[in-house]
Design brief:
The complex is a heterodimer. Chain A is an all-alpha fold. Chain A contains 16 helices and 2 strands. Chain A has a two-stranded antiparallel ribbon with strand order 1-2. In chain A, helix 3 (about 35-60) packs across helix 13, helix 9 packs across helix 11 (about 205-230) and helix 13 packs antiparallel against helix 14. In chain B, the strands form 2 sheets. In chain B, strands 6-7-8-3-9-10 form a 6-stranded mixed beta sheet, with helices on both faces. Chain B is globular, with a radius of gyration of 17 Å. Chain B starts with a strand and ends with a helix. Chain B is about 35% helix and about 25% strand. The chains are: A mainly alpha, B alpha/beta. At the A-B interface, helix 9 and helix 10 of A face helix 2 and helix 3 of B.
Chain lengths: ~325, ~230
């Protein structure tokens, strides 16, 4: 069997080897002291972004369910880690982050039942509502969650812990993403996205596969959230569910190409660069930069940069609709 | 093998099928003909579970299926080639075929079936790495048929395969369908092209405004059909 949709990276060689090389280089650079506090924080952010962009791409780019509620699962992961620390429940650190991912996936499973009965725009709005519900729940139980005051997360580890934690998280997400989209599971996601009825006629239990995609996306977002809470040492209902993050993640995935393997990674790098440029030169200008970039990409290459370069147009119909809309407006 | 027993199907308040009954025995090649809007596609979609009848029942190999979801019906061995092909355009030809054998029962026979469909449609082998969305209309129809054959079906529902194809291609694909029948596959064909369907099927039903108005083995000779559908 030939590998499915491996084209975007095919000409750069084997993905596994490439991932290991990158990992080794970043490790070695840290060991010899080439990576200072600033660069290290950039790389940590980049890894969190990559995990989030990948998680969004699995659900929205591959399974075709556009979501705004992504940040809700990020918040659930973050709060899981924070609550463990708040209530002095001692779990070895990598495991509390893992638990954050599991709690997010569990939350996804619970809300999947009502959510997956609706599709398209309604689903997107529904996910947003779910994220708000999660936040409201945290605000509503101050005795358990310390509500708006937020929680400080214990973090007795050296900076190297965060750095390597981020690397492991980011690179494993990349490998998992690659594995999924090249498997029969990934193919099933695409079939549900591209032709719902035909997928059902092929024997795909569409509800089941949409639930699976939803849970994988939540798990990854929860891992990122758990890690981020640990790294930031503090969560509160506003920063953990910060809405501008949703926008950022969508920009990453869409600019890079949400239906390609390399897209979310390229997008995450670009957004990080925009942000740094924005911070340096004009305060909050990075959001403006991203917005302009988003419109340009939608208009001229709805498959994203990687999608356009690879020539394998598999943009979800959703994006094509937006492109058509923009075309009509401009002509 | 497949028995549709007095089903009525509605879209909201609008009735699309009224007490429709058809029966197909194993190995038979049955056609349902009728004009636009007669309810042919509705009938097909109801059999494969995309729609559910309000009254009546559908049984397949002794099992009642009208309440089942489409993926369970597909798992029983009912293959459906939908109107307008409904391929997965962003997947390659090969990936589309891979989707065809997603079911467990079909996965086991994948290599065997892949060989069979490549032999039936050699052009698909040449184009196996091409995106399905970039194929010509005829090739897409061939892929749609091949995809459902990959599922190793017991019965094949074919909806309007001639739609939008050049006469020569229609002939070519029709020959493949006849060949499949010869190999023992049960076929239910729905067609607007009445002459084409009636000339080759063992038996046929005429669907008009949601009801069966005629059935028989030699409808081409019936006065009613000649007058209403063939303009003679």
């Amino acid at each position: 069997m030939p590998k499915f949709r491996s084209i975007p990276l095919g000409r750069f060689g084997n993905v596994y080897v490439l991932t290991i090389i990158c990992f080794a280089i970043l490790t070695a650079m840290f060991m010899v002291g080439l990576i200072g506090a600033y660069i290290s924080s950039l790389i940590i952010f980049l890894m969190v972004y990559i995990v989030l962009a990948i998680s969004w791409s699995i659900l929205s780019g591959y399974a075709g369910e556009f979501t705004f509620g992504h940040i809700g699962f990020f918040g659930v992961g973050g709060y899981t880690v924070a609550l463990l620390s708040f209530h002095n429940i001692d779990i070895v650190i990598p495991f509390n982050i893992l638990l954050g991912g599991c709690m997010a996936a569990l939350f996804a499973l619970i809300v999947a039942y009502p959510l997956l009965h609706i599709r398209g725009w309604y689903f997107a709005l529904g996910t947003w509502a779910v994220a708000e519900i999660a936040r409201t729940l945290i605000l509503g139980f101050p005795a358990v969650t310390n509500a708006g005051a937020g929680i400080f997360v214990e973090h007795p580890y050296p900076p190297a812990f965060d750095y390597f934690g981020a690397l492991i998280l980011g690179f494993s997400a990349i490998i998992v993403f690659y594995k999924i989209i090249n498997s029969r599971l990934g193919l099933a996601f695409v079939s549900v996205r591209d032709n719902y009825d035909a997928a059902r006629m092929m024997g795909i239990n569409t509800t089941l596969y949409r639930t699976i995609a939803f849970m994988i996306h939540a798990f990854l977002a929860g891992l990122a959230g758990g890690f981020f809470a640990q790294y930031k040492v503090f969560v509160d209902p506003y920063s953990a569910f910060e809405f501008s993050w949703i926008f950022k993640v969508i920009v990453m995935a869409v600019i890079g190409g949400a239906s390609t393997f390399a897209g979310p990674i390229v997008g995450a790098v670009l957004v990080l660069i925009f942000e740094e440029i924005g911070k340096t030169f004009f305060m909050r200008g990075s959001l403006l930069l991203m917005a302009i970039m988003l419109v340009v990409v939608f208009r001229f290459m709805p498959e994203g940069i990687v999608g356009a370069l690879s020539g394998r147009s598999s943009a979800p119909i959703f994006f094509k609709k937006i492109q058509r809309l923009l075309k009509r407006e401009s002509s | 093998m497949l028995e549709v027993d007095r089903i009525s199907v509605y879209y909201g308040d609008a009735q699309a099928l009224r007490d429709v009954s058809i029966k197909i025995d194993e190995g038979e090649y049955v056609a349902v003909v009728g004009s636009n809007g007669a309810g042919k596609t509705t009938l097909m979609r109801t059999i494969s579970g995309l729609l559910h009848p309000k009254t009546g029942k559908i049984t397949f190999m002794g099992k009642r299926i009208d309440e089942l979801p489409p993926h369970s019906i597909a798992a029983l061995g009912i293959g459906h080639i939908p109107e307008g092909r409904r391929l997965f355009p962003a997947m390659t030809v090969k990936e589309n075929l891979e989707m065809g054998c997603y079911l467990k029962r079909a996965k086991l026979k994948k290599d065997e079936n892949l060989k069979m469909v490549y032999e039936l449609f050699p052009v698909l082998k040449e184009r196996s790495m091409q995106l399905a969305g970039t194929l010509s209309g005829g090739e897409q129809q061939m892929l749609a048929i091949a995809r459902s054959l990959m599922a190793d079906p017991n019965i094949l529902l074919i909806d309007e395969f001639s739609q939008g194809l050049a006469p020569l291609l229609v002939q070519k694909i029709h020959n493949v369908i006849k060949e499949l029948k010869k190999r023992g596959l049960t076929i239910l064909l729905v067609e607007q092209n009445v002459r084409l369907a009636l000339s080759s099927a063992d038996r046929a039903y005429v669907l008009e405004n949601g009801s069966i108005v005629a059935e028989g083995t030699n409808l081409l000779d019936s006065d009613f059909v000649r007058k209403s559908y063939l303009g003679m």
